[in-house]
Design the sequence.
């Protein structure tokens, strides 16, 4: 309000200065506005368009002797399901028309596939969106916890680091013991396998007599080299067993020596295995050593060599992982302790000297201190970003699911339309009765509206005119409540014409149960509340008031509360003469413009609404 008063004052002063300095003025008075040419438009409220649709409709009961069932589509008669004189039940197939032109059957399958695809897409998208929201929510919670932790006691970070390092050391020590035991087991197993061939120990020294002299004979000293390497590996196994028995952890003592002992063990294994393979390859086969035995040894020791290579590769990867940690973890702990302390107090002389005498420790200390000082600000920014991302993700999910649901609804409408079109291919009995005459032959070409058969029934019927929008909701074969002289009957719709007559209404024929006493009496047809509600969502408009964009889409013009025109996108149904059906559900207080407004120019014309009667 304050800004408005200031603006009015400034405008008043400006006009006063202009009037004082220049006698030529611009007329902006209301009289100038009235010089616009009146542009009359016919308007009507949505609520007033379908107010002729009532829950009850009055009609006279008349006798019904026969009706003609017509083809709804052009094509060839491919099936005649009944013959003259047949008594058939409701829904029985009388004839089928071939789908030569429109492809209605294929359209149904296509519409069904499209609907399934839309539902699957929504389900998949909903799952992905839910996962995205879960991730965003988790990130938001983590950011909030991080911000809370940073604002609290920073000593927690130091304690966490110490505990993490302890856990890491425990894990590495466990791996270290595993590698020690693993290499010891390999040494023991492969020494045993070599002993069975070489006969070194008393367990096998007499069991290799038949082939001992032929081992590695082609290389001269092949057997001797293998025995030497066996003894060397035996010695290295003793070293490994001693380390295992001592049970020392990695960080106790010389770390490099512990790693070196393992490397020497793997090297001894490699050298020993290679010597065995070389010896076996130089065996003299056929003299104490069979071909099968030779092949078995070659395969066995090649497998042993592969196993050792894999074990050593795993050890090397583990070594590359642990050495940087073992080298730096103590410095990182100390630097973190000093930086954490510096946030709340000055360093002691001893602590300061410790930093000055260790350049690596000092550099790490500065990095951690700067990180701690900036962490609070970073945590706040991260929290805000995570919260915004979480909120945006929820909005995106809602918008995406709404769009996907709209796609499903459009696909459902398309399927219903396709099924309706496909139903035109089959002529069915609307009720129980008799075929009095077949008017076509099998193979005959027919057009839309061609009589197919005459169907007789002695049941009374009622003929009424109703709104096309209501008629569209009713199908042949539907049951309707009929009240005659306060007695309730159930009628069956036998025919429906969607072609509007001069009164812009559609016609409906309703058969009653066989009862000759009803003929000539006044009947009241009662429509359900749900049927009325659905039918009032559509209405007829003159073609001049609708801009048709495509077969089922168009635009109408609405009059706003500010007396301005606005365009509304709507879905279209059937065309009835000079009128078209609008099937979009609009608010009842919306005001429709029925006149052609293509030539309206708001600079030249002034809207003059006239209520359509």
Sequence:
């Amino acid at each position: 309000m304050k800004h408005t008063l200031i603006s009015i004052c400034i405008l008043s002063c400006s006009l006063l200065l202009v009037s004082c300095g220049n006698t030529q003025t611009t007329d902006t008075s209301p009289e100038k506005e009235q010089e616009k040419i009146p542009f009359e438009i016919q308007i009507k409220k949505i609520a007033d368009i379908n107010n002729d649709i009532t829950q009850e409709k009055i009609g006279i009961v008349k006798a019904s002797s026969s009706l003609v069932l017509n083809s709804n589509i052009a094509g060839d008669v491919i099936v005649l399901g009944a013959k003259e004189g047949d008594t058939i039940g409701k829904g029985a197939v009388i004839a089928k028309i071939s789908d030569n032109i429109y492809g209605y059957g294929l359209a149904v399958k296509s519409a069904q596939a499209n609907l399934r695809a839309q539902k699957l897409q929504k389900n998949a998208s909903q799952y992905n969106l839910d996962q995205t929201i879960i991730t965003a929510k988790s990130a938001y919670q983590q950011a909030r916890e991080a911000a809370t932790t940073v604002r609290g006691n920073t000593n927690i970070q130091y304690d966490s680091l110490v505990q993490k390092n302890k856990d890491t050391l425990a894990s590495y020590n466990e791996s270290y013991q595993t590698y020690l035991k693993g290499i010891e087991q390999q040494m023991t197993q492969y020494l045993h396998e070599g002993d069975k061939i070489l006969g070194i120990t008393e367990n096998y020294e007499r069991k290799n007599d038949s082939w001992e002299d032929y081992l590695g004979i082609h290389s001269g000293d092949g057997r001797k080299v293998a025995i030497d390497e066996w003894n060397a590996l035996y010695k290295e196994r003793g070293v490994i067993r001693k380390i295992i028995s001592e049970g020392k952890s990695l960080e106790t003592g010389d770390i490099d020596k512990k790693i070196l002992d393992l490397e020497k063990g793997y090297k001894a294994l490699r050298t020993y295995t290679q010597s065995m393979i070389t010896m076996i390859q130089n065996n003299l086969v056929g003299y104490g050593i069979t071909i099968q035995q030779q092949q078995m040894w070659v395969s066995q020791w090649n497998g042993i060599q592969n196993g050792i290579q894999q074990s050593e590769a795993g050890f090397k990867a583990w070594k590359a992982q642990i050495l940087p940690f073992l080298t730096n973890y103590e410095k990182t702990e100390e630097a973190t302790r000093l930086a954490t302390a510096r946030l709340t107090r000055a360093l002691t002389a001893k602590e300061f000297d410790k930093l000055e005498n260790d350049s690596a420790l000092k550099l790490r200390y500065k990095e951690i201190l700067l990180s701690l000082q900036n962490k609070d600000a970073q945590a706040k920014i991260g929290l805000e970003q995570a919260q915004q991302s979480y909120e945006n993700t929820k909005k995106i999910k809602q918008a995406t699911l709404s769009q996907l649901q709209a796609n499903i609804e459009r696909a459902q409408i398309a399927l219903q339309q396709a099924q309706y079109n496909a139903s035109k291919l089959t002529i069915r009995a609307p009720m129980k009765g008799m075929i009095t005459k077949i008017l076509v032959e099998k193979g005959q070409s027919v057009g839309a509206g061609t009589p197919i058969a005459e169907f007789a029934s002695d049941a009374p019927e009622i003929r009424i005119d109703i709104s096309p929008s209501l008629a569209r909701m009713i199908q042949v074969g539907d049951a309707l409540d009929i009240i005659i002289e306060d007695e309730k009957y159930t009628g069956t719709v036998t025919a429906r014409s969607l072609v509007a007559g001069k009164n812009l209404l559609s016609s409906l024929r309703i058969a009653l149960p066989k009862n000759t006493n009803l003929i000539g009496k006044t009947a009241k047809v009662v429509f359900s509340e749900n049927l009325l509600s659905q039918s009032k969502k559509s209405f007829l408009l003159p073609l001049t008031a609708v801009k048709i964009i495509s077969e089922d889409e168009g635009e109408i013009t609405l009059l706003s509360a500010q007396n301005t025109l606005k365009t509304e996108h709507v879905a279209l149904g059937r065309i009835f003469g000079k009128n078209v059906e609008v099937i979009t559900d609009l608010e009842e207080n919306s005001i429709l413009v029925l006149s052609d407004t293509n030539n309206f120019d708001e600079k030249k014309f002034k809207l003059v609404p006239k209520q359509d009667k």
About this structure: DSSP finds twelve helices and 22 strands in the chain.
